[in-house]
Write a structure and sequence with these properties.
The protein is mainly α. It is 87% helix and 0% strand. Helix 2 runs antiparallel to helix 3 and helix 4 (60-76) runs antiparallel to helix 5 (80-97).
Length: 153
């Protein structure tokens, strides 16, 4: 997997150069990929490394994304209440940081969870909010994904 190879190089370089902010983000991105691949054990280990570094350097933006990935991990393990709490925390933290692209990403993940739980109206509202954000910013690649989720509801 080429993305993992690049992230491993980034981790090595960031470690060598003591660039903790880059190291934390690299671990976060690798955890995200592993969570998407359903490699939950490795995702947990990586997100823990990212979290430790982010807390140490007070990186609130990365922490907001860590909450999203932790939500994905909990969702994969059918811990729906924990997943919901992490997604909501990610949305709130990203709003505080002014990172609305990440708010939209976390909203999609929370919408997927609500779909699973049969909360169709809540899911549709989250998908629509993400759709509006992506449409207003011209992020067409995400628009198609969100359209699919809207069509399911």
């Amino acid at each position: 997997d080429i993305a993992i190879e690049h992230l491993d190089k980034c981790i090595d370089s960031s470690t060598d150069l003591d660039m903790l902010d880059c190291l934390s983000v690299a671990y976060l991105n690798k955890a995200y990929i592993r969570a998407k691949q359903n490699n939950i054990k490795e995702a947990k280990d990586l997100i823990s490394l990212s979290r430790r570094i982010s807390v140490k350097i007070n990186d609130r933006l990365t922490m907001a994304e860590i909450y999203k990935v932790k939500g994905m991990i909990e969702f994969a393990e059918n811990n729906f209440e924990k997943a919901e709490k992490y997604y909501i925390k990610s949305i709130h933290s990203n709003k505080k940081c002014g990172n609305y692209c990440n708010v939209a990403e976390a909203a999609i993940e929370l919408g997927k969870l609500y779909n699973t739980l049969g909360k169709k109206l809540e899911a549709k509202q989250l998908f629509f909010a993400a759709y509006e954000f992506y449409e207003s910013t011209g992020v067409n690649t995400m628009l198609n994904e969100v359209k699919e989720y809207l069509e399911l509801n």
